[in-house]
Each structure stands twice: as structure tokens, then as C-alpha cells.
Amino acid sequence: MNPKVRIAIAGVGNCASSLVQGLNYYAGSNAEAATGLMNPNIGAYGVADVEVVAAFDVDPRKIGRPLHEAIFAGANCTTVFQQDIADTGVIVQMGPVLDGVASHFADYPDRMAIRAADQEPVDVAAELKRTRADVLVNFVPVGSELAARHYANACLASGTAMVNCVPVFIASDPAFAEAFRSRGLPIVGDDIKSQFGATILHRILARNMADRGVRLTHTYQLNTGGNTDFLNMLERSRLESKKISKTESVQSQLDTRLHDDDIHVGPSDFVPWQRDNKLCFLRMEWEGFGGVPMHVEARLSVEDSPNSAGVVIDAIRCAKLALDRGEGGPLFAISSYTMKHPPVQLRDSEAYDAVQRYIAHPGNERPLGV
Predict the structure, then answer these.
(1) CA nearest neighbour of 203 among 342, 109, 33
(2) pTM, rounded to two decimals
(3) Run of H or E including 45
(4) Smallest Cα–Cα separation from 272: which of 77, 73, 106?
(5) Listed residue (156, 264, 286) closest to 220, CA to CA
């Protein structure tokens, strides 16, 4: 077994910045006593055992730069909670553009403008092999269907596990699931569910209402933010899979599905000055005892990218654990725990228990992670 977890990163944006900052933040510390971790150790792996060996992007402000500089370059605007970032020698390489840059990005000046570099992309599969990456973490923008699939195929060609953090359905796609299974490669996906964010809050309230006998009648979740993720989603054609992912994550917690007209879950608008701060406006209406109508409204404010990095670090280490155990295909328990659109949806408490059992007991996963 490799005592390290060697990862490659596709998309050096805000989420990658928070992840790399976190690897340095927890390095050399007593992780069990540190705040912000769901699982300080997973099997033999602590956070300090994760190391980045390759990185890909298309932004000319990042390509050719050392990773420890690139995570603060371009349109990246997330909170800097770790200033001292080790120089690991990783240089950001040109990835495939495909559909990774929305056309309207070029209309925005200065900080938010993103234009693809005029360079030939590297052979991603060859680089994954050369660097001996164990796991590729996919952070390409929402709506980048072709780019996400390109990285998935590169994983299959190179023998690399994958953590798919974006709402392109790969782990939950039967054809890709079978391809990863037949190659003996683990995949965790799809669409990262933040450590404690809008999706978790919405799911918890929806499930609790069902458990307590009230009937949810209408609900919406509106989100605003000022990072490139929200800017990217101004192009409505890139939103289809994102809306499906977020909506199904909430619907899965209900005993009776809401009619499509009675539920709205999705991004609302791009507000530049919010930067990486995400605001969620949540409303839920229900009928209680005697059919009496009631409602709740909530406002949630989170830093979007650190919120996701706290989850990705567990998905990465579970993927490596599966590699060590010789398991391939979708990892049902950790996918349900960390992703909005996993192959199998579980209640969050059930997913937590399934992950703990999976970490403690080697063996192939079964469809419910139990």
C-alpha cells in the first residue's frame, strides 16, 4: 500500500484553492483535535497523507504557474485561511477546453473574465500515469459535460480513481459506472454536497417534517453568490443537470414527492460583491394537525468553497481506501454521504452510518452501502 494519497486536480478554481489550503492547514497538526473535519482519519489516511501531484486548468493566468501560486490567481476569490502554502513542485498544465468556458465569461472585465489559453492541451491520461496519481478530483465548471467526461475517460485509460464534484452524471450513469467497475477503479459522485450548506439544511428539514407527520406542500431554495460558479450559471443552458441534482437531493428525503410546480431548488443570481460567500433563502410551507397551514423561512450564509473542501477530503480518502482493497465502480456509501446526486440516495444519518461501517470493515460495497 502507498502510505500517501496522490491526487490530481482538474480545475484550479476556488474549490481547489480551499482544498489545497486545507491540506496545508492540517499538515503536521493533531488532526483529531483540529476543527472542521468530519473524519480526521479514514483507514490509515489522515489529511496530511494527501498530496497533490498534478493539476490542470485552461486559464492563462494559472497555466505554467506553480500550484501554490495558481490557487490565488485569476478569478479565484475564496477566503484565504492558510497563507503559508508549501511549494510541492506541481505546475498547472493546460487541460482540454471543450465546453469548460462559458461564452459570456469574456464579457466580464478584470477579475471575473475567463478566456481559455491558446495552447495545446496535455494528454491528461498520460500525465495521470506519469505522476502516478491515485485519485483525480474533478472541479470543472457546472455545465462542462464534455470536459467532465474527458477527465472520466482519462481516469479509465490511466487506471486512476475519480471523485466527481460537479453535476455531470458519471458515477450515477450506468454506462460509466460499469466502465469503472470493470476496470477495478473506484468512483465517488456526483455533485459535491457541502459540509453544512443549503442542500443539507433543506434535506434535514424535509426529512424531519415527514418524520413528524406534517405534509410539505411548497418549498423553494434560492441561492446567490459572487464566485465563478454563480457567474457560470448565468448561462441557463448549463443549469439543467445542476437543477436536477439539487432538486432530487431534496425530493429523495420525502415519503411523497412534491409536484414539479411545488418545488424550486437552484441558483438565483450572480452578485459580484458577495465573492465566495453564498446566501441561501429557504422557504417551506406545510399542513400540520387539522390541516392547519404553517411555514418557515431561513437565511443561510456560508463560504462556498471551504464548505465543499471539508467533504471532498473524505471522498478522496475513501476512494484511496477502495483502491487499496481492490474495489471498483461507484462507492455507494461515501457517494450518498458526500454527493447530491449519488447512484443510491440514503437519508443523511443512514449514509453516515454506512460510511463508518465501510471504513471499519473491508469488503466490496453492496448497493445500499450496508
Answers:
(1) 342
(2) 0.93
(3) strand 45-46
(4) 77
(5) 264
Query: What span, in angstroms and rounded, lies between the C-alpha atoms of 152 and 136?
Result: 9
Comparing C-alpha atoms, which of 256, 255, 281 is closest to residue 268?
A: 281
Tell me the helices (H) and strands (E) count for the chain, helix number first.
11, 13
The pLDDT of residue 279 is: 97
Q: How far is CA 110 from CA 12, 14, 127, 160, 367, in A?
A: 18, 17, 31, 36, 48
Name the maximum alpha-carbon separation found in the chain: 66
pLDDT in tens, 159-218: 999 999 999 999 999 999 999 999 999 999 999 999 999 999 999 999 999 999 999 999
As given in the structure block, the three cell numbers for residue 352 are 453516515
Do residues 205 and 284 touch, judged by C-beta distance below 8 A?
yes
The cell for 154 is 482519462
DSSP string for residues in 243-305: HHHHHHHHHTT-SSPPPGGGEEEEEEEE-GGGTTEEEEEEEEEEE-GGG-EEEEEEEEEEEHH
Which residue type does 216 have?
A: L
* Distance separating alpha carbons of residues 8 and 133, to the nearest angstrom: 6
Amino acid found at 204: I
